[in-house]
Amino acid sequence: MSIYKNFCREYFDACGRLEKFELDYPENFNFGYDVVDRIAESEPNKTALVWCNTENEEHIFSFSDIKKYSNKIANLLSSSGIKKGDRVMVILKRHFEYWFVSVALHKLGAVMIPATHMLTVKDLEYRIERSNAKAIICTPQNELPERIREALADVSLDPILWCVKTAPEGFRNLTAEMEEQSEELLRIPTLATDHMLMYFTSGTTGDPKGVIHDFTYPLAHIVTAKYWQCAEEGGLHFTVAETGWAKASWGKIYGQWLVGSAVMVFDFDNFDPKQLTSIINKYGVTSFCAPPTVYRYLVRKGVSPMPSLRHASTAGEKLSPEVFRRFTERTGLDLCEGYGQTETTMLLGNMTGAIPAEGSMGRPSPMYDVRLYDKRGEPVEAGEIGEVVVVPPEGGKQVGIFCAYLDNEKQYAHVWRGGVYHTGDAAWQDENGLFWFHGRFDDIIKTGGYRVGPYEVENILSEHPAVAECSVVGVPDELRGQAIKAVIVPSDGYAPSRELEREIKEYCNDRLAEYKWVRILEFVAEMPKTISGKIKKNELREKTEK
Question: How many domains does the chain have?
Fold first, then answer.
């Protein structure tokens, strides 16, 4: 029996679909002790992690291995002064040490701050200083230790510095020091309500915010893993994500281990579709989740047969219907979209037992009461656009939604105004109860008295072969209030020209209602993006306005 059943109650309808889901956990729940160690004690040889890299190295770790190495690292950190409540930044890319370190920090009750190796010196300064990091554990790759030293020269903190496998100047060698530590660890008291994890948002509309989750967060990912990603007991789940982003928590550790699935990790820097499918086939991956960018490349380069794969899912941004169709044609698998935020677990999804609706975010997770509200805080009718909000259970805590913004109680109160959690995302619901994404409220274009979601137009544009990447924004227009502008990165083999501009406009506008027509089109060499790869629409708007 998968260990997740110890912490929840599930209720199913007559068709066997999950209808209601309730968590039941002790007040001192800790993922490190109550999940990892308990599995290690009952099934010591059960596979937890299958890891390989582009250098053909391979390691397969059991739960007893994870217990052993996390205990060693916890003892090392503790002996160096890291204690409950201390904040530790972890920048380990896809290295297998991430799984040892994260479990070790959970056992200590320290707050883990995952971050990406792509951070600039200024990005590092901001996060280190804002979080008051007590220690940093990092990869030796990509000149990261040098950037960390440079960042620390301009902040007033002196965190302990560890690096895996080696000891650059100013750093201690975590790998070597870990081996000298005991494998035994006495349980350190923690509470389910203690802070466990902090992610900085990608900062598409302002400075990145520190999003803090407590120790109940892993349990809220049971539904994510089992009923959306279809990770299964004895299976092998592969989510494509670097450990610096919340998607790693969604797909590379918590829910998967809780439902009994091993996690596949491929440590790479440059994405290669053929390499990815070869990993899936070599190791017999059973469930797969990736951001839309990966599926776009897979479809564009040609999807190879993947006979072991039984389920595929995606989230993170809107995916065009054409990619959905072509992936299904070539694999026989429906692509199941889901929706959530760094601040949440999966709120909406095309889940087990339901036929996925192409392009829809699906239905609410049984963990959440998801509704659509207008600006007055009133529910909207079917077919009308509203803000996606979560109504918490009466008199109870909403597990799965973050518990604080770092040093920003005002912002936290703002997103919980009116007693509901405001996502800031716009959507509409059809007569069948399915939710359809319309865009960020900040990104909605108001033109000629109509409201247009940029993704409606982007989906059409992206189907033209000359469009490698596109983004649609509203720009000031005396006649319409706002005009719809498309910014396009041309595909290889296409050069910007008036003729190509006219061709793309006609292709797009012929397929759209007149009020959604693209009025302005600009070609660019590349899009302004956050370090997580999201396009900065605010910069595109500001550039036009100037």
Answer: 2
| Last-in-domain residue among 192, 215, 238 | 215
Please indicate, yes or no, if residue 187 is contained in any of the structural domains: yes
In tens, the pLDDT along 415-455 reads 999 999 999 888 999 999 999 988 777 777 878 666 677 87
Cα–Cα distances in angstroms (integers) from residue 316 to residues 244, 290, 344, 424, 437, in the given order? 15, 9, 13, 15, 12
Residue 81 to residue 160: CA distance in whole angstroms: 9
| Three-class HEC string of 68-104 | HHHHHHHHHHHHCCCCCCCEEEEECCCCCHHHHHHHH
Q: How far is CA 223 from the centre of its chain?
A: 15
Report yes or no: 345 and 224 within 8 Å, Cβ to Cβ. Answer: yes
Give the phi and the psi of residue 246 in degrees, each rounded to 5: -60, -25
By residue range, what is the domain housing residue 523?
450-545
**Which residue, 258, 267, 219, 211, is CA-closest to 240?**
267
Residues in the chain: 546
140-154, 198-212, 219-233: segment of lowest average pLDDT: 198-212
Q: How many CB atoms lie within 10 A of CB 331?
A: 18
Structure token pair of residue 480? 């319409």
Q: Provide the whole-model pTM.
A: 0.85
Q: Are 378 and 363 in contact (CB under 8 A)?
A: no
